[in-house]
Structure formats: C-alpha cells, structure tokens
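Question (not urgent): is this output format expected?
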Amino acid sequence: MPKFQSFISILLASSAGATLLASQPAAAADASSTTVGELVVTATRRVEPLHDVPTTVTAISGDLLKNLGVADMKTIVEMVPNAVLPNDPENFETYINIRGIRQADINAEPNFGLYRNGIYSGGERANLGAQVDVDRVEILSGPQSGLYGRDAVGGVVNVIFATPTFDGLHGYAIASYGNWERSELQGAVNVPITSNFAIRAAGWWFEQKQGQLYDISLNQYIDRYRDVGGRLSARWDATDKLSILWMAEAQDRHAPSLTAFAPNGITAQFGVNCCGFPSTGPMTFNTIQEDTPNVEHWAQTYLSQDITYDTHSPWGVFEVQAAYRNYHLYLQEDQDHTAFGPETFPMDIMQVQYRNERMHNFYVDVLWKSPADQRLSWILGADYFNEAFKFDRIFAGSVDFTKLNTPFAGPGFTYGNLLCSFLMAPYDGGCEAYKGSPGEPGAGAGSFPYLFPAIGIQSGGNAFGLPGSEIDTEGVSGFATVTYNVTPQLKIRGDIRYDWLRKHLNYSQGPVPPPAFGATATSAAYLDPLFAQIFPPFSLVDNKTFTNVAPSVNVQYTFNPNVNVYALFATGFRAGGYNVTTTSPAHISYNAEKAYSGEIGTKTLWLDGRLSLNADVFYMRQTGLIEPQPDTSAPSFLGLYFLSNVGTVRTWGAELQGGYHPVNWLNFGLSVGWLDDKFVSGMTSGPSGGLVPLAGAQVEFTRHWTIDLSGGLDRPLTDRVRLVGDFNLRLEYGGVMDAARGGPPTLAWPDFNDLDADAGFAYGNTRLLGYVTNAFDRRIPQFLYSDGIENFNTGRTFGVRIETKF
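Got this back:
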C-alpha cells in the first residue's frame, strides 16, 4: 500500500500542476506546428477529440504503426498502460490482459470487446490476425459493458481500418526483409471512381521460412509461418445525407500450432518421471525433439456494411451496422512433445492432437444519435448476435501391444499392468475391470496378470468433442446513453444496457470409431478401455441463458479547452459458457463473470498543445472470476482441467499517459501503469486434491508495472533528404505465472524489457530504414504446461525496410 500511495501522490501532484498550467489561456498555435491533441476517436460512439473523451483511451495512429513496421496486436497492446499480451503458444493471439482482466483459456470467450470500424467482431474465436492499413487503434481500458455490451469486462479494442476517401488517387507500399528469411509486403491504394463513390484496396504477404525454434528430429524450423490477406472497401455518398460503407476481407494463415519446448527435458509417458521411462534431456531453442509437425491453418472471411443517414436536423443521425464472419481452423500438434515412438519403450504412447473448427457469426445493430451540440443528447441502440461454433478435438494414440507384455516388476506384473494402474486408478487398477474389456489370460476383475495380445503397434483416437459437437450463441441487447450539459463546463453522462444471451451446447466425447486415425476393430477393442480413462464417453445437450443490466455514470468538468477532469463508475459483464476440456459432465458449464469499477482522471493540454498529460486512478472489483481448475476425476499427471468461477478479486491501479511534440520533426510518447490485484475471497483446487484458499494471491499473467516510451524523428538534412527513425521501449515488472493447474499461482514472471527501433533516410515520400525488434534479445517464459514444456516470446529480429507513399 505505501507504494500505491506514493505513486498516487505523484500522479495527483503532476495532474494538479498540469491543471494549473493548462488552465492559463493558451496562445494561438503556429500554423506550421503539430499538436498532440489532434487525434479524433469514437470511444463514446461519437467522433470527438481524444482530449475531450472522459475515460481512459489509448489511441494509436496508423502512421505510427507503419513507421514502426507494426502489424501485430501484441506490439499494439504493449503501448497501453496496464495491458499485456503474452505470446500464445497456439497462435490464437487472444489473451489480451487489460487492467488484470484476461481470457482464462482459449476455450473461453475473450475478456475484451473486439470491434472493427466500430462493429462488433468477437465471439468464440476473436482472431486478431495481421493489422494492415490501419487508420488508428482505440483501446478503452476498464469495464465498458454499459456502452459496448458483453465481453467488454476488461475493455474494448476497436481497430479502425482506413476507408475510401474522395481526395484523389493515393496509397502506399511497404517491403521488408530480415533474418530468419522473413519477408513482408503490404500496401493499399485509394481510388475515387466518381465524386461520390470511391474504393480502397489493401493487401499483405508476410512469410518467415526459418525461426528461433529448430526441431532436430524433423530437421525443420517449427515457428515458420505465412500470413496472406486482402481487404476491399467501398464508400458511396448517395446523397448529402445518406452514406454507405462496404468492407470485405479474406485472410489465410499457415503457422505453427505449438511454439514450445521443454528446457528441463520431458519423459516419454505423460511427463511422469518414473519407472525407467526415457527422457529427452534438456532442450534448447535449437535442439527441440518432436516427431510430429506442429502445424495449423486458419482462414477467415469478413463482410460488413455501415449505412448512415444524417438528417441534418434535431432528429440527428440514424445508423445501421452489420457484419458477417466465417472462420475455419485445422490444427495438428505433437501432444507427447517428444520424438519417442511406440517402438521406443514398452509403455510409450505416441500422441497427436487434431483440432478442427468452423465458426460463422452474424451481427447487426441499429443506432439513433441525436445532435451532440444540444444541451440534452442521446444515443439509443439495439443489436442482435448469432453464432454457430462447430468443433472437434481428437487425440490419436499409438502403442505397441507386444511391448506392453514386457515384465516390469517380475513376470506377474508387466508394463501393461503399470499402464492400467495409471489410467484405471479411479477404478480398481485393472484394465479388464472397465466394462468387460477384453484381455488375454486374467485372474478376474481387478487382478493381475493382465496380458495384451502380441499384435504389435495399434492406433486409435478419442475426442474432447466428437465431430458434430457445437456451441450456438444468440444474443439481443438494448442500450441508451444520455448526456446532459448542466452548465457549459459540467457534463453528466449515463449509460445503461440490457443483455440477453442464450448458449446451446450439443456435445459428445469418447472413442472415435474405426477406421479413423488408423483404428481397427481389434485396436479399438483394446485401446478404447485404456483411453476411456482420459475421455470418459458421454453426450450432453444443454442450454444456458444469461441476462445482465449494465449501468455506468460519468461526470466531466471542463476548466477550459486545455484541461478537464472526470469521474466514472462502470460495470462489466462476460457471459458464462461451456467447458470442452473436462472429463466429467458435472464440470461442463460455468457462470458469468462481472466487474465494477470506479475511476477518476484528468486530461490536460499545454505548451500550445505540444504537450499532453493524462492521469487516472481506479479501483475495480471482479466477482465470479473464471479460472482453470485441475480435473481431479482424471489422473493428475494428465494435466486435465476445466474452467470455473473461483472467487472475488479487488484491483487498485493508476495510469499516466503523455505525448510531447517539441518541434515539428520530433515527438515522444509515454505511458506508465501500476497495478495491484489480489484475490479477497475464493477457493481453488489444490494440486493434489482438496480446496486451497485464494485470498491474498495475485491474479496470474498481470504486471505490477508497465512502462512504454516511444519517439519519432523526421529531421530535414537537405531540401530533399531527411533523417528518420522511430523507437518503442517496453518495460514490464512483477507478476506471477500459473505453473500448474491447481493452487494459487506463485511462480514469479520474469521482468521484461523490449526495444524496437528503426533508423534511415527519407527522400521525398520514400523511406529506407534498418530495423530491429527485441534489440536486447530478452526471451522469457510466457506459458507453462504441466508436463514441463514452455513457450517464449520471439527473440531479436532485424532487417531492412523500404516504404513509399504516392
């Protein structure tokens, strides 16, 4: 608490000083100067200057992203105070953590509301992909459910892509080449067809043929990838009142399905270090040992339409937005994470995961916005969301039955008996005890010896979600935002939203019938009883309905055009859902998660608009926090888990953001975040069973401190040549990781520093630069698995880049 009080004192003192300075009348800015307060945003679903928005918004311009060569969401998030995005080992890229609120697992919906050009684009798979031809990114921190609806419990990420304009033919192109044979091509062109109709086309090709992770068993880099896509948008101003914007995008990505390895080595059987099982020994980035390629391929298409009718009268603006998204994923992953095959050792099971997903969703909303310049203004809206998410997740295994008869503890106890003891522990320890499973000479149920037929290597498959499994979601919302200008300086805004959401589950798990994944009738007869301990067969049809009312209240006082202060109370809501990684129907569902937040802040502009300082402090309380729990109905060494509402968390935080533009060829940006989040109540399952209190534990994958410093240089050297450069320095301190499913997280998350920079020369509209990312080559763990494998962030990359505008 003393650290918090000290930091709050600093923030309030600096804010007070900024208020006093900024409250002095501002001199007229020079016509050639550039101010830091010019960026406009749509955070309140109206277009207004960033400085006037009474909430914490980080707005990042598309020019800054292009100058830094940024096209990924991770780097964008790292520019936001109190926000982190750990490298996702399975490349889904959705684990955005804002103010300590994060997505609990890839099988849960995200904790943030994802929007594209102001239109909702979330759902079960809120894939982020390449961020190309971006006009700006707006990230709203803290609960936003009153204005933006469900999933906005941690905040909102709104990516605004560039749209067509009528101001002539123009565009840009960027090409780069770097180490690991990484090449990038992207560009866009704006084409006015008539005085009121224009189109814009953008495209990209990102490819990396090598990487920092090398598999010596397969003789290949496992983190190579290719991301290709294109976007076409059209704008038609049919009249001076009616405008229509269409957008279509297609993206195709080939990437690794798992970028992880075992620094301390891994054993051949479920990561259990006993019984003479072979071990890989310690692995490094360049000595990974896996015998199955980790690959994934996902493709998605996106269509949207935005119809705006401005009455140019007190009736205001009517707007209809709609979007459709179609997504398909195929994934193959080495699940035992070794190069040991079934011929290696008597009890070795070669395991491969196959994931197949298809999703399509449709979203539409209707808005009525009154003119903003009247004393009482409002936004009324309603939306509808419908999604079908089809999935299957198959685990295929191969084992040598002949080798299973090798004696382990004398002729009466074989490795097959040992395997049965592991998998049948919840029963009586014998394979033949499971539903009359077949066996060679046996002494009866639960007794040894149990002998397997000498039929060599056999294969089969079991599933967390057999083909045909599906989650359907349907939601309806209505909301109202009312703003009342009490005086020219004092403004009060209230938001309220009602959400109704229904989820329907049709789910089956268990053995995959032959001939899938190499299974035969013989192998199924013997393997199904073995694998049934990991995937007990069952089917379930279920419906869950969630409702929520989310209010928020905002009070803003403007001292003058240079300074305003605000106070905000907001709520957040994330609906519950269904687990698809549990072995028991009792754990299949979980309930909603909610957050309540209070925030005060100030926004200031001074030095003729060349300097901005924004500061805020907040307190938040989360109830029903969703966390992974170990599945105690399965053997613990399998690492199986489910999602559950485990407890209540309180969070204190403070943020400082600033921008400085001392001269027209130099600019700097700064963001600082401090966070203290702790469980105040709740219980979690211990690693060996039983319940353990969570009170006092920190929420995993959050940072105590985040600091981001950026800058840009564009200095004329001659009439034609300029010196150009950009940098972004990211520092992260504190935090814990979830080292295993079960018990409060206690493993320290190593501190992190990351410097991205480029420098070069510009001639006219063309820039030639050298660049480096993660210049310090700092690589730290991002996720840990129960069998000992870890994934790390990407190390140092460097190369050259050429950019041109026309």
